[in-house]
C-alpha cells in the first residue's frame, strides 16, 4: 500500500514540492542526505557536557536572581517589608513594584487580534496581584544561595479579594477563540442527527492541567552594555523574544540580542515569561544577571495546559457510518492570555460525518496564564474523541480499526478541501500487522497472566501541518567549498542543525561535513519559533530559497566563459561541489572554479520563504496509528505499559534516526498524560500545589516500555522536502490508546485522566 501511495504522490505533482506553484526541479533527486539516519552534529558536544546552556554562561561580575511569589490569587499588596532582605549577606538589589523601572506590558505572542498565546499582564508595575504565584519581588545577590535566603526574608501583607478559581466563581462561559478564530464549528444539525442515530455513544472525558517540566528549567543570563541588552536565553523563540523585549523596554529590536544555541527541552512554553523581563529590568543594579527558575518557579510563573471537560457524542447508522459528531466542552483561561486549550482541533479533520458540532467554551480564572503546551488541543482532544470511537466500536461490535477505516473522510469534513496527503489507512494496516493486532480479543477482560490482566488498544494520532510566515535564511559559500547556513532556528534536542545541513548539502551537492549551520541567535535571518512542529519545514524552505538565490548569483558570476553559460537556476543542479546542467553531465563547473575566475573568496545569498499559502489550498495534517498493550494488576490496579507502537504518516522523513527519537519522546509524553501527569490546583487558594517532580509524576525509564516506531515515508507533494511535522504528533492519540487498552484488559472505562490506580480499583 505504502509503495503504491509513494508512486502516486510523486506522479501527482511531478517535480513540484514547493508550495505556491513554484516548480522545484531538484526535488526528485533529494535522495542523498535526506532520508539518511545521520547522527546529530550537536551530539558530541552534548555527550561531553560541552554544549553551553543559558544557565551555564558565566559573565564577569554576574549576580544571581531569586523571585518572591505572591501567596494569594487576587488582591493588592498592602505592605512589603524588604529591609531584612536588603541587609542580608551578598544582596545587591531588592526590586519590587515600588522601585522597578516603568515597563510597557509584554506583547502577546503573534500580536494583534490573531494572538496565539502569551501573557500581557503588566510586570511588577503596580500593587495588584493577578494570580497565586505572581512575582512580587526580585532579589539579586552574589550567590544563588544568598539570593534564595534573602528572598525568604521578604514579608508581604495582602489585601485579599475574592478570586475566580472555579467555574461557579467565574463570570460565566463564552466561546473560546484560537488565533482570532472562534472555536465553534457547525456542519448540518448534529444534535438532530445524534438524536435520530441508530447507534450512539455519549460520554464526558476530563483531563487535568499539565505543567512544563523540561529537564532544563527556564533560565536566562543577561547583561546590558550601554543601551543594548544581551540575553543568553533558554527559548523556543529567539526572534520573538527580541521583538517583545524591545517593545517592553521601548527600544529598537536591533538593540536586543537573544542567543539560545542549546535548549534543554521546551515542552511548548519555553518562551518569554516574567523572569527574563524582571532580570532585564534589574539593570539598575548595573550587574549581569543569571536567573534560573526553580522547579517550583516554573509552576508559579510559566503557564501550562488548562484542564478540560469534554463531552463527545457520536451517532452512527446501522453500518457503523458516523451520522453525527458532537465534541463540546469547557476549559478555563485567564484574562491575560488569548489562548484556551483548543481541544476540538483534532476533531475538525478526523472523520467523515454528515453533521458535526464542535465548540470550546471558556471561563476566566485568576491563575497563571495557560499557554502552548505539548500539542495543545490535539493531545487532550484526541483523548476524548478516540476513546469515544473505541466506545462506539464496542457498542457496534466492530473492530476499532475497521470502524475508523469505515469513517475515513475523502476530503476535509469541515472545509471541504482536499487532503494534501493522508495515508492513515496504510499506517493502520502496517501498524496492525507489526503489532499483532489480530491477537487482541474483542472481549474485555479475557486475557490474564497470573495477577495481570492484559489488553490492547489503538487510537488515531493527528497534528496539523504548519509553516510560519517570515522564514528566511542566508548561505555563505567560500572558495574552499565550505558552506555556512545562517538561520535563527532553535535546537531543543530535535536535531535542527543536522536536518538543515542535510537539506543544504543535498541541494548544493556537497558532503555533510562541508556544511555548518549557525542558529539560535536573534541576529540571524528568519524563523519565528520552534513550535507547532513546523521548524524543519519553515527553515528548510528558507534554506531552499536562499540556495536558489545563490545559484542565480553563481550563474551570473560564471558568465559566458563557463560551461554553464546561458543557463538559468532551474536548469542546473548542485553536485560534486559544483553546478551541472540537469540531464547533461558534461556541462559542469565547480564552485571553487566559479569563485576563482571571478576573483571572489566567498559568495553570500539570502532568501525568504513564500507565504504559507499551501494550508489555504489543502487540509494538511500529520497522521498516526497508535497501538498499546498494557497489563493491569488485578489486585492493585497498577497499570504497566507492556508494548507501544506508533505507525506514522508524516510525509517524507528527513532523518530516520532523529525522527524515531522525536516520535518516541512524544509518545513518552503521551504515556505521562495517560497515566500520571496532573497539576494539582487548590481552588480554595487558587494555588498550584505541586512543587517538585516528587508530586508531579512523569514517566521515568522504568515506566517506559520498548517503543516501536514505523512510518509510511510517503512524501507530501505540497510541503517543502515532502515532509510534515513530527515534533508533537507522538503526544496525540497515545492517551486514548492507553485508555482503550486498559478497557480491553479490565472492562473498565476510565474517562477521568490520568488513569491512576485509585480510578481503577
Ligand atoms: Mo509546541 S506546544 O507548539 O512547542
TrEMBL record:
<dbReference type="InterPro" id="IPR000674">
    <property type="entry name" value="Ald_Oxase/Xan_DH_a/b"/>
</dbReference>
<dbReference type="InterPro" id="IPR037165">
    <property type="entry name" value="AldOxase/xan_DH_Mopterin-bd_sf"/>
</dbReference>
<keyword id="KW-0560">Oxidoreductase</keyword>
<protein>
    <submittedName>
        <fullName>Dehydrogenase</fullName>
    </submittedName>
</protein>
<keyword id="KW-0500">Molybdenum</keyword>
<dbReference type="GO" id="GO:0016491">
    <property type="term" value="F:oxidoreductase activity"/>
</dbReference>
<dbReference type="InterPro" id="IPR036856">
    <property type="entry name" value="Ald_Oxase/Xan_DH_a/b_sf"/>
</dbReference>
<dbReference type="Pfam" id="PF01315">
    <property type="entry name" value="Ald_Xan_dh_C"/>
</dbReference>
<dbReference type="InterPro" id="IPR046867">
    <property type="entry name" value="AldOxase/xan_DH_MoCoBD2"/>
</dbReference>
<dbReference type="InterPro" id="IPR016208">
    <property type="entry name" value="Ald_Oxase/xanthine_DH-like"/>
</dbReference>
<feature type="domain" description="Aldehyde oxidase/xanthine dehydrogenase a/b hammerhead">
    <location>
        <begin position="48"/>
        <end position="162"/>
    </location>
</feature>
<dbReference type="GO" id="GO:0005506">
    <property type="term" value="F:iron ion binding"/>
</dbReference>
<dbReference type="Pfam" id="PF02738">
    <property type="entry name" value="MoCoBD_1"/>
</dbReference>
<dbReference type="Pfam" id="PF20256">
    <property type="entry name" value="MoCoBD_2"/>
</dbReference>
<dbReference type="InterPro" id="IPR008274">
    <property type="entry name" value="AldOxase/xan_DH_MoCoBD1"/>
</dbReference>
Amino acid at each position: 500500500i505504502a509503495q503504491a501511495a509513494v508512486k502516486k504522490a510523486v506522479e501527482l505533482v511531478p517535480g513540484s514540492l514547493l508550495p505556491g506553484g513554484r516548480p522545484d526541479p531538484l526535488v526528485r533527486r533529494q535522495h542523498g542526505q535526506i532520508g539518511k539516519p545521520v547522527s546529530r552534529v550537536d551530539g558530541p558536544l552534548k555527550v561531553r557536557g560541552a554544549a553551553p546552556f543559558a544557565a551555564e554562561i558565566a559573565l564577569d561580575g554576574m549576580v544571581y536572581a531569586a523571585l518572591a511569589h505572591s501567596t494569594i490569587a487576587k488582591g493588592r499588596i498592602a505592605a512589603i517589608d524588604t529591609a531584612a532582605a536588603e541587609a542580608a549577606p551578598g544582596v545587591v538589589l531588592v526590586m519590587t513594584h515600588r522601585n522597578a523601572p516603568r515597563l510597557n506590558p509584554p506583547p502577546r505572542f503573534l500580536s494583534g487580534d490573531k494572538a496565539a498565546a502569551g501573557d500581557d499582564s503588566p510586570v511588577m508595575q503596580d500593587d495588584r496581584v493577578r494570580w497565586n504565584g505572581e512575582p512580587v519581588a526580585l532579589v539579586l545577590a552574589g550567590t544563588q544561595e544568598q539570593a534564595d535566603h534573602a528572598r525568604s526574608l521578604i514579608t508581604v501583607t495582602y489585601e485579599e479579594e475574592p478570586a475566580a478559581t472555579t467555574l461557579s466563581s467565574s463570570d460565566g462561559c463564552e466561546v473560546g477563540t484560537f488565533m482570532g478564530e472562534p472555536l465553534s464549528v457547525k456542519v448540518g444539525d448534529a444534535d438532530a442527527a445524534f438524536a435520530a442515530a441508530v447507534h450512539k455513544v455519549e460520554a464526558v472525558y476530563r483531563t487535568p492541567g499539565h505543567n512544563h517540566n523540561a529537564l532544563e528549567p527556564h533560565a536566562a543570563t543577561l547583561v546590558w552594555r550601554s543601551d543594548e541588552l544581551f540575553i543568553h536565553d533558554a527559548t523556543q523563540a529567539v526572534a520573538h523574544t527580541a521583538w517583545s523585549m524591545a517593545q517592553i523596554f521601548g527600544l529598537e529590536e536591533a538593540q536586543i540580542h537573544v542567543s539560545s544555541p542549546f535548549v534543554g527541552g521546551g515542552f511548548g512554553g519555553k518562551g518569554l515569561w516574567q523572569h527574563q523581563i524582571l532580570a532585564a529590568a534589574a539593570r539598575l543594579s548595573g550587574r549581569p544577571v543569571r536567573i534560573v527558575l526553580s522547579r517550583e518557579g516554573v509552576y508559579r510563573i510559566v503557564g501550562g495546559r488548562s484542564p478540560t471537560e469534554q463531552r463527545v457524542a457520536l451517532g452512527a447508522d446501522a453500518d457503523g457510518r458516523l451520522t453525527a459528531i458532537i465534541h463540546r466542552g469547557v476549559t478555563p483561561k485567564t484574562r491575560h492570555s488569548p489562548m484556551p486549550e483548543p481541544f476540538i482541533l483534532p476533531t475538525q479533520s478526523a472523520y467523515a460525518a454528515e453533521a458535526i458540532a464542535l465548540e470550546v467554551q471558556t471561563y476566566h480564572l485568576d491563575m497563571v496564564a495557560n499557554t502552548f503546551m505539548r500539542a495543545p488541543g490535539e493531545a487532550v482532544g484526541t483523548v476524548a474523541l478516540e476513546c469515544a470511537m473505541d466506545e462506539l466500536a464496542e457498542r457496534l461490535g466492530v473492530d476499532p480499526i475497521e470502524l475508523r477505516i469505515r469513517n475515513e473522510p475523502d476530503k476535509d469534513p469541515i472545509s471541504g478541501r482536499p487532503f494534501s496527503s493522508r495515508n492513515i489507512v496504510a499506517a493502520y494496516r502496517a501498524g496492525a500487522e507489526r503489532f499483532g493486532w489480530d491477537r487482541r480479543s474483542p472481549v474485555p477482560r479475557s486475557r490474564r497472566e497470573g495477577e495481570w490482566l492484559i489488553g490492547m488498544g489503538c487510537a488515531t494520532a493527528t497534528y496539523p501541518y504548519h509553516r510560519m510566515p517570515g522564514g528566511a535564511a542566508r548561505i555563505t559559500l567560500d572558495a574552499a567549498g565550505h558552506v555556512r547556513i545562517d538561520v535563527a532556528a532553535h535546537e531543543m534536542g530535535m536535531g535542527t542543525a543536522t536536518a538543515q545541513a542535510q537539506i543544504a548539502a543535498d541541494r548544493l551537492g556537497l558532503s555533510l561535513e562541508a556544511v555548518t549551520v549557525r542558529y539560535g541567535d536573534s541576529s540571524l535571518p528568519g524563523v519565528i519559533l520552534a513550535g507547532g512542529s513546523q521548524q524543519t519545514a519553515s527553515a528548510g524552505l528558507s534554506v531552499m530559497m536562499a540556495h536558489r538565490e545563490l545559484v542565480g548569483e553563481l550563474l551570473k558570476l560564471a558568465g559566458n566563459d563557463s560551461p554553464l553559460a546561458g543557463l538559468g537556476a532551474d536548469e542546473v543542479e548542485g553536485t560534486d561541489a559544483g553546478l551541472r546542467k540537469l540531464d547533461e553531465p558534461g556541462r559542469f563547473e565547480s564552485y571553487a572554479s566559479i569563485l576563482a575566475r571571478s576573483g571572489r573568496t566567498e559568495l553570500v545569498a539570502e532568501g525568504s520563504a513564500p507565504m504559507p499559502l499551501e494550508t489555504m489550498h489543502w487540509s494538511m495534517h500529520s497522521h498516526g496509528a497508535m497501538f498499546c498493550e498494557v497489563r493491569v494488576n488485578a489486585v492493585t490496579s497498577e497499570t504497566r505499559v507492556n508494548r507501544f507502537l506508533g505507525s506514522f504518516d508524516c510525509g517524507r522523513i528527513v532523518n530516520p534516526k532523529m525522527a524515531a527519537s522525536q516520535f518516541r519522546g512524544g509518545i513518552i509524553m503521551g504515556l505521562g498524560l495517560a497515566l500520571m501527569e496532573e497539576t494539582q490546583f487548590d481552588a480554595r487558594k487558587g494555588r498550584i500545589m505541586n512543587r517538585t517532580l516528587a508530586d508531579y509524576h512523569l514517566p521515568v525509564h522504568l515506566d517506559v516500555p520498548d517503543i516501536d516506531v514505523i512510518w509510511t515515508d510517503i512524501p507530501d507533494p505540497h510541503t517543502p522536502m515532502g515532509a510534515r511535522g513530527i515534533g508533537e504528533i507522538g503526544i496525540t492519540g497515545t492517551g486514548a490508546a492507553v485508555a482503550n487498552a486498559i478497557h480491553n484488559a479490565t472492562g473498565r472505562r476510565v474517562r477521568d485522566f490520568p488513569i491512576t490506580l485509585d480510578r481503577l480499583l
